[in-house]
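Chain A, query sequence.
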Amino acid sequence: MAEEKHVKLIGTWSSPFSRRVELALKMKGISYEYIEEDLFNKSPLLLQYNPIHKKIPVLIHNGKPIVESLIIVEYIDETWKENPILPQESRPLVGILQEVIGVSFIDEETFPVLCKWVEMFLSSSIVKESLPPRDKLLSFFQAPLEARAASKPMVYK
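Chain A, predicted structure.
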């Protein structure tokens, strides 16, 4: 596909929004260049292609930027018609977030069909290859909570 030659994705490894776009590209079999963005030191490329919000992910297709992960996924699905992927939602990070904050959002008893779908989704080799390492992700989400807990003394009344 000639259209694929000019596909770039600006994202960051820890962003579920970037991961959503990466998964869509991989599930469609689209070749792309991935550009890792440092959100604390934003690159000129990010500022050029998303000057208003200055956020990731940004998909650049033939020099034109598309922003907002759900819009990007819709664009991918509409541009490359083979292997449709919508409508689908992914929630690979919910389990990590539930563990970090100690609250259960989704469980098998309340959402059995969704949990079964998530299990099938996460068993896909494409998804497995795209997810960041679990321990790295867990550390990423725990660090701010631990830092906050360390900086604020507990007050009991």
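Residues 87-91 have pLDDT under 50 and may be disordered. DSSP finds seven helices and four strands in the chain.
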